[in-house]
Amino acid sequence: MTSPDSALRAPADAAHVLARCRDVVRPALTEAVGRMHPWVGEMAAYSFGWCEVGGTPAVASGGKGVRQALAVLGAEAAGAPGRAGVPAAVAVELVHTFSLLHDDIMDGDAARRRRPTVWKAYGTGPAVLAGDALFALAVETLAAGPGGPQGVRVLSVALGDLVRGQADDLLFAGRPWTGPSRVRPEQYRTMAEHKTGALLGCAAALGALLGGAAPSLVDALDRAGRHLGIAFQIVDDVLGIWGDPAVTGKPVYGDLRERKKTYPVLAALDSGGRAVRRLATLLDTGEDPEEAAALIETAGGRSAAMAEARRHLAAVEAALADAALDARAVDDLRALLEYLVRRDV
Questions:
Q1: What residues does 116 pair with on adjacent strands?
Q2: pLDDT digit string (tens) for 68-77?
């Protein structure tokens, strides 16, 4: 059946979809954060972009809320009102923020969304504590909701995959650019599915589960989210080299300067072309990122990355087509997918 909420909505537009879902989720998310220890809650609010250090309300609005939107849309895809997916949205948003706090520490990143990261603003120990508290609150939120033990199991599987993906990502940094021990594109795809796709799939699947969906629909949305995560990560990699700094918030060729093993780089190195040796030297030293970017493009790395992103987007569409979903919710999902994988590339 079609939910009354969806029957009154305007045609799908990504910005509208994200704003609508944030409005549905924000009261419950605010209430959950309000149950935390005041100091830890301030760090959580800072990480969401709600306040500055010290608790002063922030001008910035924080992240776009993609994962919480997927949870709301997952419930609507099952024919339930979007509010049925709110506990899933809150839990997944808390887990995502927990992972960012810890990732920023592991990666040594000093800024996120043009502000100091939590560990830079409050210290490493407090940031770890805030991340742990967000994780505990996420499990509590889900366990207390209608999903109960089954919902916690779905979240636990995603968390296990997220840890695997993060572990692989950290290990990739120590591997050589060339030779038998190099990182292959297929290994990168697996890492991206775990690190990025698992939580996106979990969000949509949990929303559908709380919306009363059949197991086949829950599985289809989880599969769609995992493919979306790979496509999203690869597009992010392209933007990390060639993206407009005004859009990405990062300097041009930023990922090359940081010598990150991203998909366009790995695909270029895997091409076996004449430029591979020179490219590997530039990547190893971090010198002349402009030349490195040109060599990656000449070796087909950029085109291979976009082709791979399109392949996974097609897999998302196939997963959605396999399930009997509410038509308007599918339109909203497609608007969101379009936005995520076609960001000025």
A1: 111
A2: 999 999 999 9
Residue keyed to tokens 């590339």: 345
Q: Which residues contact 83 (CB under 8 A, 6 or more apart)?
A: 5, 24, 72, 75
> Residue 90 contacts by C-beta under 8 Å, 6 or more apart in sequence?
25, 28, 29, 32, 68, 138, 141
Burial class (CB in 10 A: 0-12, 13-18, 19+), 228: buried
By percentage, how much of the chain surpasses pLDDT 90? Answer: 74
d(CA 97, CA 107): 15
Which of the 8 DSSP states describes residue 123? Answer: -
Q: Which of 103, 111, 93, 343 is closest to 242 using CA atoms?
A: 343
Class for domain 4-339, per CATH? mainly alpha
pLDDT digits (tens, 9 = 90+) for 102-134: 999 998 989 888 899 999 999 999 999 999 999
Residue with token string 């795809």: 189
Name every residue whose Cβ is closer than 8 Å to that of residue 338 and which is 6 or more positions away in sequence. 14
Q: List the domain boundaries for the chain.
A: 4-339
**C-alpha to C-alpha distance for 205 and 73, rounded to whole angstroms:** 10
Q: What single-letter amino acid sits at 65?
A: G
